[in-house]
Amino acid sequence: MSVLAHVIEAAGISTVVLASMRPVVEKMRPPRSLYCEFPLGRPLGIPGDAEFQHRVLTEAFSLLDTTADHGPIIRDFDEVVESDEQPVACALPPRFDPNLPACVDEARGLRNAYDRAVAKRGHTDVGRAVDADTIPEVLAAFHRIASGDDWKTVAIPGKNTVAVMHDIRAYYEEAALELVGTAGARSLEAWFFEATEAGKTTLAARQAIKDGGGPFPFWFYMAPGHR
Predict the structure, then answer these.
(1) Is the pLDDT at 65 greater than 80, yes or no?
(2) How far is it, in rounded angstroms, from Cα 155 to Cα 200?
(3) Which of 140, 179, 192, 218 is paired with 108 by a 20 to 30 Å CA distance?
(4) Where do the H-state alpha helices sit in the chain?
(5) Mean pLDDT lowest for which of 21-25, 66-70, 79-83, 209-213?
(6) What mean pLDDT, rounded, does the chain reach?
């Protein structure tokens, strides 16, 4: 959005960016931005609270009365909204093979639930980079990186970490929905990254790649930016 703001401003149209991450607008320097410390994905703050959302928009539009001639304007919204999502209560399978990395054993243990979900829905979101059979292999590669292997020497199936992570999360979340019935997207995200071995391994591998000099897009989008 910050880049688009520059393009639109160049065409003579004033813009305001609703920013969820202050470092981004500080780096990209859009002409006007309102930094709102809200959970990512909730640019207006509180779902269903029209009064609060209108207050955010009123504050944002008020920036149009300012001039950005002397540098970008970043204003902080005066209220913080904390994330209220709790991880979905989904029981994970017990360890079956203690000789395997915990994340690999876990992924294998969820396969029956995943297969039932696919049979029930008639389709799956897994398959952007790898299929369900390859998920344990990808997690084994992430486990190696998290355990200290140089990320440049570890063959990651699917190669594209963004697409691979889409498949891993889809596999886990479809299995979880089969086990618990219904859950919100944020609750599933929290469950994956905070409660599963796969999520913890992913974050550890992401940090290891970053620390090992991995390029920004390669590691950053392995998880949502706020993680």
Answers:
(1) yes
(2) 20
(3) 218
(4) 2-10, 22-28, 50-62, 102-109, 111-121, 135-146, 161-180, 185-195, 197-211, 216-220
(5) 66-70
(6) 92
- Token pair for 147: 């355990």
* pLDDT single digits (tens) 34-55: 999 987 778 898 877 899 999 9
Check: CB of residue 195 under 8 Å from CB of residue 179.
no
Q: Is the dihedral of CA 93, 189, 167, 206 positive or negative?
A: negative
- CA gap 9, 26 in Å, rounded: 17
Kind and range of the H or E run holding 75 = strand 73-76
Residue with structure tokens 């609270």? 49
pTM (whole model) above 0.90? no
Q: What is the dihedral of CA 96, 102, 108, 110, to 10 degrees?
A: 90
- Sheet with 73-76, side-by-side order of all strands: 17-19, 32-35, 73-76
Amino acid at 171: Y
Contact indicator for 90, 180 with CB cutoff of 8 Å: yes
Place of tokens 């000789």: 99
Can you tell me whether residue 32 is helix, strand or coil? strand
Residue pair 210/219 in contact (Cβ under 8 Å)? The answer is: yes
